[in-house]
Write a structure and sequence with these properties.
CATH architecture of the largest domain: 3-Layer(aba) Sandwich
Number of strands: 12
Helix content: 40-55%
Bound molecules: 1,4-dihydronicotinamide adenine dinucleotide, 2-oxoglutaric acid
GO cellular component, one term: mitochondrion
Strand content: 15-25%
GO molecular function, one term: nucleotide binding
Radius of gyration: 20 Å
Distance between the termini: 31 Å
Structural class: alpha/beta
Number of helices: 13
Protein name: Glutamate dehydrogenase
Organism: Dorcoceras hygrometricum
Strand order of the largest sheet: 9-8-7-6-10-11-12
Largest sheet: 7 strands, mixed
CATH topology of the largest domain: Rossmann fold
Catalytic activity: L-glutamate + NAD(+) + H2O = 2-oxoglutarate + NH4(+) + NADH + H(+); L-glutamate + NADP(+) + H2O = 2-oxoglutarate + NH4(+) + NADPH + H(+)
Length: 411
């Protein structure tokens, strides 16, 4: 099932459980605005290259729209739409005052030089600057982008609108970024996992963990989980997969991946087939790369007891059903990975206040938001007798529906 069909399906199931009016349901589903822009840049060799960029602004009932910008060859309109919608429900689950948006450019950042990436980012910003802003739509990093990308967007946007640090989050610290944002999604994954395990009388210590994706989210999640005594036995990224039954030395692997652009060639474990990573023996599986990777073809072979969705939309609805029958507990993306957007919110607040928080405050506030989010999701599960994904969707959709009705947009 494609990402948009899957996301719409989950939304509609939640809308029915909540008993939403059909007109309201329809209006919540349709994106506020979809933007498609052509971005042509001169390459370093003087030739021209054209790329297509997207920004989908899904909903702003609860506040400015918020969500990352992805640079990846598979960026396409339906997926960006789905990811924008997921951001709306995610911000509401986290209970931060934002709506949802997502953007991306269909490109392979690994094949572009730094100066080509800068030109591409600046051209994309020129095309969307009039529809983003600190109180309208606030981009952030996602796959293939990072603090440097945000710095270029900030600089290009500021040429049109004056210096505006709150127009993007996930910035470098020297440009108004927040301490703790780099690790925030991974740290949120740690807090979410701890909250879930507590329900089963367990802690992270001694759990065997497998992680797919070793970029910002996957590497921080692996590092923080291993610091709590979790045994990370296998990880993969686009370059390969590494396994060590006794536990990988994560700080060493992070250093290797940084120096070699990936985990391939790491000497502290055995190289395994990356396509087997999701079905490796473990207690906890953390998909932290692409969407749709857990589907009807592999769900029945998954051995983990818990799946923590650090990636967006890693699990197809058909797989959800198979996993539920097998008794595998899935902690859904719109709660499990909301630590990133939560600390983005803290960054935006600091930019607007003109005051910088220390890292302990950021991490302490994040922990409180993550624990409250888990409690709220569980309450919805109890009210509607549903599993965690539906509980999270009901929580998010209900909060957005209430804000929409209060603003009088239902007609
Ligand atoms: N960066 C953030 O704050 C947030 C990111 N996410 C989601 O987390 C996921 C990862 O994002 P980031 O870590 O930021 O991206 P990133 O670009 O830093 O890292 C992506 C990782 O996935 C790996 N990868 C790509 N294709 C793969 C494949 N076919 N098999 C295995 N690994 C593959 C890459 O090699 C890299 O290690 C995405 O789904 C993103 O939407 C969710 C919430 C916030
Ligand atoms: O930090 C943000 O604003 C959004 C991060 C994001 O794109 C996501 O949570 O999927």
């Amino acid at each position: 099932m494609n990402a948009l069909a899957a996301t719409n399906r989950n939304f509609k199931l939640a809308a029915r459980l909540l008993g939403l009016d059909s007109k309201l349901e329809q209006s919540l589903l349709i994106p506020f605005r979809e933007i498609k822009v052509e971005c042509t840049i001169p390459k370093d060799d003087g030739s021209l290259a054209s790329f297509v960029g997207f920004r989908v602004q899904h909903d702003n009932a609860r506040g400015p729209m918020k969500g990352g910008i992805r640079y990846h060859p598979e960026v396409e309109p339906d997926e960006v739409n789905a990811l924008a919608q997921l951001m709306t429900w995610k911000s509401a689950v986290a209970n931060i005052p934002y709506g949802g948006a997502k953007g991306g450019i269909g490109c392979n950042p690994l094949e572009l030089s730094l100066s080509e990436l800068e030109r591409l980012t600046r051209v994309f910003t020129q095309k969307i600057h009039d529809v983003i802003g600190a109180h309208t739509d606030v981009p952030a990093p996602d796959m293939g982008t990072g603090p440097q990308t945000m710095a270029w967007i900030l600089d290009e946007y500021s040429k049109f609108h004056g210096y505006s640090p709150a127009v993007v989050t996930g910035k470098p610290i020297d440009l108004g970024g927040s301490l703790g944002r780099d690790a925030a999604t991974g740290r949120g994954v740690l807090f979410a996992t701890q909250a879930l395990l507590e329900e089963y009388g367990k802690t992270i210590a001694g759990q065997r963990v497998v992680v797919q994706g070793f970029g910002n989210v996957g590497s921080w999640a692996a590092q923080l989980i291993s610091e709590q005594g979790g045994i990370v036995t296998a990880v993969s990224d686009v370059t390969g997969a590494i396994k060590n039954r006794n536990g990988l030395d994560i700080p060493r692997l992070v250093k290797h991946a940084r120096e070699n652009n990936g985990v391939k060639g790491y000497s502290g474990g055995d190289s395994i087939d990356p396509s087997s990573i999701l079905v490796e023996e473990c207690d906890i599986l953390i998909p932290a790369a692409l969407g749709g990777v857990i589907n009807r073809d592999n769900a029945k072979d998954i051995k983990a007891k818990f799946i923590i969705e650090a990636a967006n939309h890693p699990t197809d609805p058909e797989a959800d059903e198979i996993l539920s029958e097998k008794g595998v507990v899935v902690l859904p993306d719109i709660y499990a990975n909301c630590g990133g957007v939560t600390v983005s919110y803290f960054e935006w607040v600091q930019n607007i206040q003109g005051f910088m928080w220390d890292e302990d405050k950021v991490n302490g506030e994040l922990k409180m938001y993550m624990r409250k989010g888990f409690k709220d999701v569980k309450e919805m599960c109890n009210t509607h007798s549903c599993h965690l994904r539906m509980g999270a969707f009901c929580l998010g959709v209900n909060r957005v529906a209430r804000a929409t009705l209060l603003r009088g947009w239902e007609a």
